């Protein structure tokens, strides 16, 4: 078996607010959108490279402690790599996100911020502080 794509499917109560936030504020690219006659709607947004990060409970608590200083994340959290974590945190807060923790430098040399965003999702924005050479394998960052 070869996996070609990972897609996270999220049911959101306020579809319009979630689209406005993720497409318009965060800047994810609309790949496709569909609607049904009964009011059903879905939009697929492209978010660059996808990874699946599996963490045991101890690591989950450790990351919360490093990034926020206390346990806050639900079982699922979405992390987006950005170029400027500080500016993007401010931009998303202005677009309706609640800042849980401001950008904080981590021991693994990234700048990470936490937000609660439309769709009842908990999000990390992270900015890698050490540039990697092109085509090098990604380093494990503990997002």
UniProtKB/TrEMBL annotation:
Checking InterPro entries in the record gives: Glyas_Bleomycin-R_OHBP_Dase (IPR029068), Glyas_Fos-R_dOase_dom (IPR004360), VOC_core (IPR037523)
In terms of Gene3D superfamilies, this protein maps to:
2,3-Dihydroxybiphenyl 1,2-Dioxygenase, domain 1
Keywords recorded for this protein, A-Z:
Dioxygenase, Oxidoreductase
Q: Name one GO molecular function term.
A: dioxygenase activity
Q: Which residues form the VOC domain?
A: 2-128
Identify the species of origin.
Answer: Asanoa ishikariensis
Protein name, please?
A: Glyoxalase/Bleomycin resistance protein/Dioxygenase superfamily protein
User: Coiled-coil regions in this chain?
Assistant: none
